[in-house]
């Protein structure tokens, strides 16, 4: 049973007041600290509290991890996430829960949660021409909880063209905050990656959050820190990077949200893809629309 909206707003109020940047930096320092008996104790408590399935991890023994970050971004066994290549053109890029999925509304508005929408243009950094390509398209927002596998994979084969790091707030991105903080995903720190896919371009947005110490990609490494407070952009036309479907493209060092953006008439989500449904990386997500 959900709480009245005004009570949910009160529960989120402390996030407006707390020093989120400082807390995130401190969490990042602790997460990178060389493992000690106390750090191993924290790993075990974390796994037990959140229900982390260590049996599917490549290294099940906590002592195998040099620090908390290595544990949090643990690799999985090769057969833990089979790719549904024969049943879908697009695969889920992450483990998580579908927060929202659907069509980008008129004027580029994306549904966040009841009462709240946010701007596609703002999400992508404010460039009108960049956003125009995806107007009236489709989107999916996937929330990664602390127990989930936190590496991010390719939903289909794609060639990287742009990467943009956009500074912003560091609100939590859990369902409660999504229901109560306006423009949450377009105001938090985020990393926008644009790819040219087999049939059309698509965008993957990695959204930062409180105590998300950093985000990393396989081609760049850790993107943040540093956090210079200005938009940073990289282009890859002269140095093309192509990643195949199911291949790892990045990871969160502590959890957050991934948003997928597709142009109009280029993605047909599976009927099973509905808000509130849990998904695993490599499971079927959608298909190229039939002509």
Could you explain the architecture of this structure?
The protein is α+β, with helices and mostly antiparallel strands and 291 residues long. It is built from eight helices and 18 strands. The strands form four sheets. Strands 2, 5, 7, 8, 9, 12, 13, 15 and 17 form a nine-stranded antiparallel beta sheet that branches. A four-stranded antiparallel beta sheet has the order 6-14-10-11, with no helix packed on it. Strand 3 and strand 4 form a beta hairpin. The model has no long low-confidence stretch (mean pLDDT 91).
Summarize the structure.
With 291 residues, this protein is α+β, with helices and mostly antiparallel strands.
Task: Please describe the structure with a list of short key phrases separated by commas or semicolons.
291 residues; alpha+beta; nine-stranded antiparallel beta sheet; four-stranded antiparallel beta sheet; 8 helices
Topology:
Elements: H1 5-17, H2 20-32, H3 37-50, H4 68-72, E1 90-91, E2 96-103, E3 109-113, E4 116-119, H5 120-123, H6 128-132, E5 138-143, E6 151-153, E7 158-166, H7 175-180, H8 184-187, E8 190-197, E9 201-207, E10 214-217, E11 221-224, E12 232-235, E13 241-243, E14 248-253, E15 257-262, E16 268-269, E17 278-279, E18 284-287
Assembly annotation: single chain
What is the number of helices? 8
Number of strands: 18
Overall radius of gyration:
18 Å
Structural class: alpha+beta
């Amino acid at each position: 049973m959900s709480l009245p909206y005004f009570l949910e707003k009160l529960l989120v109020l402390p996030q407006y007041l707390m020093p989120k940047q400082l807390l995130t930096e401190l969490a990042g320092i602790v997460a990178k600290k060389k493992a000690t008996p106390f750090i191993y104790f924290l790993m075990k408590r974390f796994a037990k509290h959140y229900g982390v399935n260590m049996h599917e991890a490549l290294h099940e023994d906590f002592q195998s991890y040099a620090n908390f970050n290595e544990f949090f971004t643990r690799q999985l066994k090769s057969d833990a996430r089979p790719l549904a290549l024969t049943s879908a053109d697009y695969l889920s890029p992450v483990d998580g829960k579908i927060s929202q999925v659907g069509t980008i509304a008129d004027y580029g508005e994306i549904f966040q949660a009841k009462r709240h929408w946010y701007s596609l243009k703002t999400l992508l950094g404010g460039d009108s021409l960049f956003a125009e390509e995806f107007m009236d398209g489709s989107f999916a927002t996937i929330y990664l909880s602390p127990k989930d596998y936190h590496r991010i994979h390719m939903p289909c084969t794609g060639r990287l063209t742009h990467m943009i790091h956009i500074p912003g707030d560091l609100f939590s991105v859990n369902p409660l905050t999504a229901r109560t903080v306006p423009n949450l995903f377009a105001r938090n720190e985020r990393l926008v990656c644009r790819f040219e896919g087999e049939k059309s371009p698509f965008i993957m947005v990695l959204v930062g959050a409180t105590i998300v110490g950093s985000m990393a990609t396989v081609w760049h490494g850790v993107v943040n820190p540093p956090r210079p407070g200005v938009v940073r952009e990289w282009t890859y036309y002269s140095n093309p990077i192509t990643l195949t479907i199911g291949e790892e493209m990045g990871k969160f060092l502590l959890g957050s949200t991934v948003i997928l953006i597709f142009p109009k008439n280029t993605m047909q989500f599976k009927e099973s893809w509905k808000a509130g449904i849990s998904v695993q990386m490599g499971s079927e997500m959608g298909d190229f629309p039939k002509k």
